[in-house]
């Protein structure tokens, strides 16, 4: 199905629905997507590269848990 046809089909279903929960869910999807795009697009390329490298490290099992980090730096947290 072509994208334009899919959009029209979705618009028709939206106009016909009386289910507020469906409308709220769809709105939440769009808001979440807009927030993700806005924040990512505003980051500098260097920061994006750091984030991507961090994700790669985590997927390789090279991450450090929050608990370990907090224990290591607890002396600074007490100030």
Describe this structure in words.
- This protein has 79 residues and is mainly α.
- It folds into 2 domains: 1-42; 45-79, no CATH class.
- Helix content is 80%, strand content 0%.
- It contains 5 helices and no strands.
- The chain has helices at residues 3-16, 20-42, 45-59, 66-72, 74-77.
- The N and C termini lie far apart (61 Å).
- The mean pLDDT is 88.
Write the SSE topology.
Layout: H1 3-16, H2 20-42, H3 45-59, H4 66-72, H5 74-77
By helix and strand content, what is the structural category?
A: mainly alpha
Helix content: over 70%
What spatial form do the alpha-carbon principal axes imply? elongated
- What characterizes the major β-sheet? none
Mean pLDDT: 88
Radius of gyration: 21 Å
Short characterization:
The protein has helices at 3-16, 20-42, 45-59, 66-72, 74-77. The chain is mainly α.
Characteristics of this structure?
79 residues, 2 domains
């Amino acid at each position: 199905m072509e994208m334009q046809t899919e959009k029209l089909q979705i618009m028709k279903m939206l106009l016909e629905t009386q289910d507020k929960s469906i409308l709220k869910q769809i709105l939440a999807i769009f808001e979440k997507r807009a927030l993700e795009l806005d924040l990512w697009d505003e980051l500098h390329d260097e920061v994006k590269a750091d984030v991507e490298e961090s994700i790669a490290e985590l997927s390789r099992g090279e991450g450090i848990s929050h608990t370990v980090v907090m224990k290591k730096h607890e002396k600074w947290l007490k100030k």
